Amino acid sequence: MSARRGRHQHSQSLQQPSDYESDVQFLSDIPPPPEQRTNEELNLFVLKRHNREVTSVEYVAPYAVVYQFSPDSQQWEKSGIEGTAFVCGLQPTQESLERFEVTVLNRRGLENFQLELLSTADVEVTEEYIILNDIVEGVPKVYGLWIFSEPPPSSASHHRVAIAHKIQECTQRIEAGKRPVKPQGLNGHEREGVEESVLMGRQLSLKDLFGQQRQQDDAWSIRSHSPQRPSVQFQTTADTDFFRTTQRPAPPHSPAVSAQANGQGRDIMDLLRKAGEGYRGVL
Hints:
It is a single chain. By secondary structure, this protein is α+β, with helices and mostly antiparallel strands. The chain starts with a helix and ends with a helix. It has helices at residues 2-14, 20-28, 39-50, 159-176, 188-199, 206-225, 238-244, 255-282, and strands at residues 54-70, 75-90, 99-106, 113-116, 123-125, 130-136, 139-147. It is built from eight helices and seven strands. 42% of the residues lie in helices and 23% in strands. A seven-stranded antiparallel β-sheet has the order 4-3-2-1-7-6-5.
């Protein structure tokens, strides 16, 4: 009896008093449940970790394999990147109102596939691949996206056609959203001419925009501070040689002219002599 009584007393000592305050304190230590997020929000959160310029998710393909065309073997080779493919919207810039890129998050490694779309000429759709052209450090690269799709009526039967259509649509939006270049430092007429040339599809460089104005400014500065006189090549003639020589050349000797001059001299002397004789006879 004594042993049983001791056990009963020991069990009563283990019981802890409980009140409402202790229960509230215990419940406050439990963290609140996480916020419910949609699949689009989760995808956008993950993509922003790889590229901070991502602003939206335009399309998602569950599974894609990235191939690269080899110029040596003239065949498609696996690049080792395969996973979920995304068509993402990027932040706009001063040159383009809309920007998009294709991203494939790699399931087999740490290297992902990211390629920004630039124009419709860089995209080609075939029965097997979505071909994307790119230039990496001056070397052209050709990639092929193989999109997994099952025959209908499967829900994955439309992914290849849908993502190809979305990529082509995005490239069209990129070309339509390009902003014209507005150079500074030109007058109104020159700025209008530059804007018209840009709208017509002509690509202008900074040298084309500002080179002509800089040449005009340099020419004005040279004329103002140190004018340059045009150099005239001096050509020698008989007249210039006459003044450049120290002694004048003797006139050409003509016998007929000399005889005529001597005859006129004799006539003058005869007249003077006759006049003198006549003057003496009068005296």
